[in-house]
Amino acid sequence: MKLHEYQAKRVFADAGIPTPDAELADTVTAATEAGDQIGYPVAVKAQVHVGGRGKAGGIKMASNSEDIEHVADDILGMDLKGYTVDQLLVEEAVDFVDELYVGITLDRSQSRPVAMVSTEGGVDIEQVSEETPDAIVREPIDPAFGLQPYQARRAVYGAGVDRDIAGDVASVLTTLYDLYEARDASAIEINPVMVTADRQIVAADAVMNLDEDALFRQSELAQMAEAAYDDDLEAMAGDYGFDYVRLSGNVGIIGNGAGLVMTTLDLVDHFGGSPANFLDIGGGAKAERVGNALEVVFSDENVEAVVFNIFGGITRGDEVAMGINEALSEFDELPKPLVVRLAGTNAAEGMDILNADLVDVESTLEGAVKQAVDSANEVAR
Ligand code: GDP
Ligand code: MN
Question: pTM of this prediction?
Fold first, then answer.
């Protein structure tokens, strides 16, 4: 579960990390009032759960009241990678000379958290990570001992952070690790940490993702995260008990089992499509569950075609097919094409039963994915 930038910044600020003066606004008037009060120039920033807001036009500077009216009006209601912007963070603009990157995440390959520091902060850290991985210094952390002061210094100096601010950056890194640990985060990141001309450092952006399985003992953050769950579809899917992640593409994906769903996502990508979501309906495929899953995926207005990839194991293919048919009986016509691929126990019996008037039945995974991608791309063209 992800916090919004403004929420993560509150958590960081409470822990002593310097953040710019800021106010949240959900109307043009409120944004203008916030700008007037903070003093210009300000940065106006879309509060949606997507990275790269700057490049996508979701962050703009405003230099006076008139300016902020236009900027706020432009960004409010904007569609950013499938999310509608309904909240803005109006923030004191930072006059910066340098942008750094600091973060803590879980390194699954090493089974431990890792602290990361780079002087190549800013908007392109993913590119830095791919093209010049050495520009990001990684310091694995033994969870039994936490991030030791010498490790924080080693990471910061190793990355080549200027000496006069190195102590401050190391202390931010230490605070981030303390938060990561104490607040059950799964990833925490500041990109960029801005360095001002008078050598102060400020957290200009903030990412804090939470471990959902630990929310029961993080009630304050759980409430924040709930408020941050402004995506109706994610909320709906959550209510139905699905593991669902909304993505920005147009091919809806439903499957049983996380691995199967991930494979389907990869194949959609492989065949030139773009996944609209991850949805794992879990074990079994009773009509009600199938119906709920279809409701979630068809409610996503980006979706142009859906691939339903199901593996009959303990739940036999013919039972699954009956569940699908029953769910489909609610529809005279499907809103978007649905391709079903059934494999595993009693798959052949299942495919015979499936209502072929409403769905495309494919026996191979590749065939099913290709079919859905082609339908979606046809519409997009
Ligand atoms: P992201 O694109 O979603 O990661 O959003 P960020 O908050 O990281 O902002 C992206 C970029 O916008 C930063 O790297 C800066 O270059 C610019 N930016 C953000 N806030 C400010 C600000 O207060 N002042 C100035 N000059 N630029 C800013
Ligand atoms: Mn950023």
Answer: 0.72
